[in-house]
C-alpha cells in the first residue's frame, strides 16, 4: 500500500468512524473553499435573526483547504420529495409558515452601504454559478451591472442576437432587465436539501456560502431554478414562503439560463474592490 493510500485508509477506516462516534455527534465539519465568508455569514445571521443556523466555532486550514467547525443541528433535510409529500398538510403548513418568517427576517436586514451593493456579507464578491462558473464574482454597484453579468457582458440587443432570440423574447429580456428591485439579504441556495426539520419544526437552515445582498427577486428565481424536476411538489410551495416574482423568474430561467463563461464575453466589473464593511470586522 502506497503512502497516500495508507493515509486515506486510516482516515476513512479509523478517524472518520471515531469522529462520528464521539465529537461528530455535536460538531459538523464542512470543507468550504470560501470558508471565511460562509462563517462570517452564519455569525451575521445568528446575531441578527431567530433563524436556526449553526454556531461557528472556527475556520481551520489544513493543507491549504479551509474547514468550518460548527455545531451539528438536529433534524433531517427535505431533499427527497417523498419526505415532503409524506407529511400531513397541517405539518407542511406550519413548516412553510416558519420558513416565510425566516425569509422575511432576512429581507428586513439593513444593507450596510448606501446605495446598497450586490455583494457578500463582507462586502466582497458573491458566489453564484448563475453569475460565474469560475468562482465568486463582483461586487456589483447596482442591479444594472448585475444584469450585465447575467448576459455575459453583452447589451440586451447583443445578447438577443447572440442567442438568436425572436423579437418577443428580446422585449421580455429588455423589460425584465430594466425593472429595479430593492436589494435584500438572500440565502441564494434555499432548496429543500438545505432545510432541516424535526416534526413540524424547522431546526436548521444551512449552506450559506452563496448568501449575500441581492435584488429582491433573486431568492425566488434561485429557489425555482434549483428544483430540476418540474413535477416536484416543492415547486408549488415556494411562493408560500418566498415573495413571488413570476415574470422575472420566467425570463431568467427560460431565456437567460446558466452563466456559461465559455460561451462568450464575461463581464469584468470595473467596481470589484472588497469594500470591507465595518459591520464585518467582528465576524471573521
Automatic annotation (TrEMBL):
InterPro entries: AGP_Transferase (IPR051678), Aminoglycoside_PTrfase (IPR002575), Kinase-like_dom_sf (IPR011009). SUPFAM superfamilies: Protein kinase-like (PK-like). Residues 34-234 form the Aminoglycoside phosphotransferase domain. CDD domains: APH_ChoK_like. It holds the Pfam family APH. It comes from the Eukaryota. This is Aminoglycoside phosphotransferase domain-containing protein. It comes from Agrocybe chaxingu. The lineage of its organism: Eukaryota, Fungi, Dikarya, Basidiomycota, Agaricomycotina.
